[in-house]
Amino acid sequence: MGASTFTQRLEQRKKEVEKNSHAEKNRVGRWRLALGELSIKIRRWLDEPIKRKLVEVSAYEKTLNEERLGAYEVKGLIVSLGQQRVTFDPVATYVVGAFGRVDMIGPAAKFTLVRERDDGHWSLINPIDPRLREPLTKDLFERRLLEALG
Q1: Among 2, 24, 96, 131, whose Cα sits 20 to 30 Å from the Cα of 13?
Q2: What's the CA gap between 82 and 27, in Å, rounded?
Q3: Residue 66: which residues within 8 A CB-CB, separation 6 or more?
């Protein structure tokens, strides 16, 4: 293999790596945006309980480390009812069959939220049959939050 052919192949590989790097940065940006939108939705659904000081909602920073993306920061959410807490814990943007996963972890139950499409649409994995997904609505959120709290 001549030096010019070798150099040309390295140049091509470098272009591919740079292109993939740009796409991965965009993926992380869209993931952060989706997590922010989920947080806003949850806060909006909890607006009345927050105003009545029944629950508190707070954000926290978390470092994710995914093989294709490396380490990066995201924000999770904690819903507190007295000493009880339900954590909305971001897991990854690269998951099988979805564009992201957030675990909803409470003292009595754990549920899995997935971002089915790259458009902000969230669903809840059915705890009885994990093959089934239910669109995340306010009613479903409220029921699962109460279950997670116990």
Answers
A1: 96
A2: 36
A3: 72, 92, 93, 94
pTM (2 decimals)? Answer: 0.83
Contacts of 73 (CB under 8 A, 6+ apart): 61, 62, 63, 64
Token code pair at residue 120: 């902000």
Are 123 and 114 in contact by the 8 Å Cβ rule? The answer is yes
How far the first Cα of the chain sits from its last, in Å, is 67
pLDDT tens, 109-135? Answer: 999 999 987 777 899 998 888 888 999
Residue 8, C-beta contacts closer than 8 angstroms, at least 6 positions apart: none
Q: Can you spell out the DSSP letters for 18-77? A: HHHHHHHHHHHHHHHHHHHHHHHHHHHHTHHHHHTTS-EEEEEEEEEEETTTEEEEEEEE
State how far the Cα of 99 lies from the Cα of 51, in Å rounded to an integer. 33
**In whole angstroms, how far apart are CA 103 and each of 19, 80, 141, 145?**
31, 16, 13, 12
Query: Which residue matches tokens 């997590």?
Result: 35
Strand partners, 114: 101, 123
CB 88 within 8 A of CB 79: yes
